[in-house]
Amino acid sequence: MNKQYYVNGEWKSSEKIAELKSPHTKEVIAYIPQATREEVEQVIKVADAAKKQMAELTAYERAAILEHIAQLLADNRQKAAELISLEAAKPIKYALGEIDRTIETYKFAAEEAKRLTGEMIPMDAAKNGANRFGYTIEQPIGVIGAITPFNFPQNLVAHKVGPAIAAGNTIVLKPASQTPLSALFLAELVDQTALPKGAFNVITGSGKTVGDALVESDKVKMITFTGSPVVGIGIRNKAGLKKVALELGSNAGLIIDKGVDLSQIVPKCVMGAFSNQGQVCISLQRTYVMDELFEEFIKQFTETTKQLVIGSPFDESTDISAMINPSEQERAMNWVEEAVQNGAEIVTGGITENGVFMPTILTNVSSTSKVSCQEVFAPIVVVNRISSVEEGIAAINDSNYGLQAGIFTNDIQTAFRASKQLEVGGVMINDIPTYRVDQMPYGGVKESGTGKEGLKYAICEMTETKLVVWNHN
Questions:
Q1: What are the residue numbers of the active site?
Q2: Do 410 and 260 meet the contact criterion of CB atoms below 8 Å apart?
Q3: What phi and psi, each to the nearest 5 degrees, are found at residue 365?
Q4: Alpha-carbon gap, residue 455 to 104, rounded angstroms
Q5: I want to staple 446 with a disulfide (CB 3.0 to 4.6 A). Which of 148, 269, 275, 402 is the partner?
């Protein structure tokens, strides 16, 4: 099927189109418009022209639009999930889970739209502040360029679109090249709401063409990007004085202290390491287990991993399916081979069967191997021994990334120390680093990026604080 992009409430075609193939079957599932620079600039103009109308909506109206989007997604839950499985090979049970989270994300956005307040400033606290009355208001910044990844093609879009609408901004969305169908389906739903035409636009095409046009346009006031550090740093360097929010890579670490109940922990670790084929920013990638529990942890972890169901993303029992594309599977395989050459052992996996990269557990992995120090974004997890929690904290911090980390421990002092010393944006005590609910602040340090997502926090990034001072002499 030939798809069109969405601008100003209309569907448009581009001269150039590209095949979109299913990662699972490798069959062509759609033909996607590849926008030219001029077409992108035209879309930005439309979003810029819609700014005034969007800013004039009341908080009540913005919230009602977001509630409507949530309701339309709930009404179309199955179809939305099937599109994710089709274009991203995400197993259907996880795709349905993503839609449920997406509905919640738009609901949170609706609630936050009603809470967008400034604050009173005690002007007379200053020597020269008498007879003055001050307060701040939060105003929309204008056009937001949103560039989203393939791994959560509805929920990570919602984390940009939801707060942008809540704050009264207009949006140009560039979805990942592998997952445009979800974004175009969202456009079909948004089209049914009272959102002013031109306030939400979806443009498809090459990351370079569309991304560069958004980053270089003086009409775009903010870029919100989720993706690789290389691209993110490039955006930051080109963005000038634009606001930039970057959700970049990670290699999330977990410490397992002695004395904890492995039967509770192991199923969470398997889920954290392998859900969505490990293609999650906070996928559990590095696990540091105390000596006393190491052998037992490896045994239970391997047994549970081997029970995962491998198969078609459309089968309700499937846990693991194909990665996003064959070249990514090949890269993952090369990284495993490199780790083995450096002394790592494959406990299970490390092979491809029927086009699916099997869930892989590695142990005795050098900290300089790619599977340890880079973002693996594949169903691969490192499990190494430690003899103290301090050693685990040092190992997690020995990374260019710092998005989230976790620790399982029964000792309150240990937990407290880890919460202070781990160099990450979020520490999960007695949970895996893959834990996320959508209203919490989410964002990392180091090469994991700048800025926070999570509705209230993203809205903060997407507004300008204006001070108003009255002199009432």
A1: 247, 281
A2: yes
A3: -95, 130
A4: 11
A5: 402
